[in-house]
TrEMBL record:
Top-level lineage group: Bacteria
Identification of the protein by name: Transport permease protein
Keywords: Cell membrane, Membrane, Transmembrane, Transmembrane helix, Transport
GO BP term, pick one: lipopolysaccharide transport
GO molecular function: ABC-type transporter activity
Membrane topology: Multi-pass membrane protein
Pfam families linked: ABC2_membrane
A GO CC annotation given for this chain: plasma membrane
Subcellular location: Cell membrane
TM annotation in the entry: 41-60, 72-95, 115-137, 149-174, 180-198, 239-259
Chief localization: membrane
Family statement drawn from the similarity comment of this UniProt entry: Belongs to the ABC-2 integral membrane protein family.
Domain ABC transmembrane type-2: 35-261
């Protein structure tokens, strides 16, 4: 518990620095590109187009999913997934890639995963904004349930940071961890309900129940429920409790490992 408090205090104390550095890294990424930061929107839109051609027109044949146009349903899932995918892999490598700074500068290493998450936020909000425009053009109605976006956004950031502090530490301790994580994330695209509906899938009940325990599925399904007038988040209290239990457990283990080994990161790299 003390390790969790230490790591959280470091985030709050350095919140300003986290956002300043994330903006610098964001600009540096696209500095040599003619279209610059526009690529943060263009890249996901191109991916949405490809997935829609394959799944929307091919697999689903233009049908609705959970009472919503497939393009809207899919764009909500992909907006969340593309952000989480980038953040999961980015936070995992965030400490190892900045090892040269750790040896030269005095700053809390635990903020590096947070910087990576923050640097991806512009792309997420831009893509989600495009998704909302498309949703409104497809006659999706704005309701008071849209306020649940705030709750599921908090869920997403909490999970990404918890997993990020764990993964970033593990990547330094075991270099193969990042490669294993990359493979797992590729599979999770198809096991998290991003581009096809797990709820309607012709799976055994037990297998479907296991898939729905996936924290990424909980977040994606939650954003869809919020924007497409599904149930309030507290109705499915079993998955709510399980999600936060997994998130807190991951943070507990990650914070403990991080505080225990960070003084030796330079030697271990």
């Amino acid at each position: 518990m003390n390790d969790m408090i230490i790591v959280l205090k470091e985030q709050l104390k350095n919140l300003g620095m986290i956002f300043r550095v994330s903006k610098y890294e964001e600009r540096a990424t696209y500095q040599s590109h003619y279209l610059g930061i526009l690529w943060e929107v263009l890249n996901p839109i191109i991916q949405v187009g490809i997935y829609y051609l394959i799944f929307g027109l091919g697999f689903y044949g233009g049908r609705q999913v959970e009472g919503a146009p497939f393009i809207v349903w899919m764009m909500i899932g992909l907006s969340v997934w593309l952000f989480m995918n980038s953040a999961i892999l980015g936070t995992s490598n965030s400490i190892f890639q900045k090892m040269y700074l750790i040896s030269k500068m005095n700053f809390p290493v635990s903020v590096l995963p947070s910087i990576n998450i923050a640097s991806n936020l512009t792309a997420f909000f831009a893509m989600f904004g495009v998704t909302i425009v498309v949703a409104l053009s497809q006659n999706v109605i704005i309701t008071f349930k849209w306020i649940q976006f705030v709750y599921f956004f908090i869920c997403m950031i909490a999970f990404l940071f918890s997993l990020g502090i764990f993964s970033a530490t593990m990547t330094v301790l075991i270099r193969d961890y990042h490669m294993i994580l990359q493979s797992i994330v590729r599979v999770l695209l198809y096991l998290s309900g991003v581009i096809w509906n797990i709820k309607d899938a012709n799976f055994p009940v037990l297998f479907k129940a296991i898939l729905e325990l996936n924290p990424i599925f909980y977040i994606i399904d939650g954003f869809r429920a919020a924007l497409l007038s599904g149930d309030w988040f507290w109705v499915d209290y079993q998955h709510l409790i399980f999600f936060w239990a997994i998130t807190l457990l991951t943070f507990f283990v990650g914070a403990h490992l991080h505080v225990k080994f960070r003084a030796r990161f330079v030697d271990l790299s």
